[in-house]
Amino acid sequence: MFTQHTTNARNLAAAAEAHGVTLPGDLPGKIAHAADLEAQARTARTLTPASIAADLVQHLGDPKSMTAARKAAALELAATEADQQVGAVLANTVASDLRSHMRRERDTIAAAFTEAARPHTDALAEHAGRLPEWFRPEQAGDLTPDLFANWRAVETAAAALEAMRTALSPCYGRADDDSFLTKDAHHALAYVKPPKRIDPPTAHRIARALDGQVVGGSQLGASHSVAVFAPTTLAHLGCTFEWATPTQAAERAANLTEAATEREPATV
Q1: Using one digit for the tens of pLDDT, what is the confidence trace for 139-154?
Q2: Residue 1 burial by CB count (10 A; 0-12/13-18/19+): exposed, middle or buried?
Q3: Which of 21, 148, 190, 222 is the most exposed place for a label (fewest CB within 10 A)?
């Protein structure tokens, strides 16, 4: 009965514990209490008329004892059924409260992970730009030892940031593909900061790179998408790496979209 929102809250708490992050306010207590309620619901005794009858049969031959046991069992069954009805509503109410709390405090919660994210964003800043611009993971075996070390550092940092962003998904909200940015591109903006002053072609290239794609081909021939390792291409396009709250990530998306649609003023 406990919904996905409760699971999301537990995942958030686990990520906070793993990274040494203290969640704000009374959220940790709420999440812990919700987990206890969920555990109680899983281990609660299932009481039915059939199970009661199986217990009562041991009083067969002693009418007085059976009557007393039957009355007690009836009261217990009524209490159990009432508790189950309340529990069903409580589970949904608890999940809704957790979701509302995480959405209400989304920027504060995400900001609490800034220091935990910093070693990983610093690693991307230091190593990503050293790899070839259109680098693909399957090319790792062709790298020199020094560049391979850079690749492993970038790979580890990017995976850590993606995992952190996933754990914080209740705060960032659902991201869907739009007319310009894909869902994965929106996710990456939690730790990728595009340059502020860019022309429309560069904005489009960054948008594709956020999704792990570049457009290959020549201007005269057919073009096609090529899968690349996003952090490397983004570094070559002038992006930096900095953890962002949901509000900041949304601003990055809006600024990039605006840069992609800007047009030069008409001349007379």
Answers
A1: 999 999 999 999 999 9
A2: middle
A3: 222
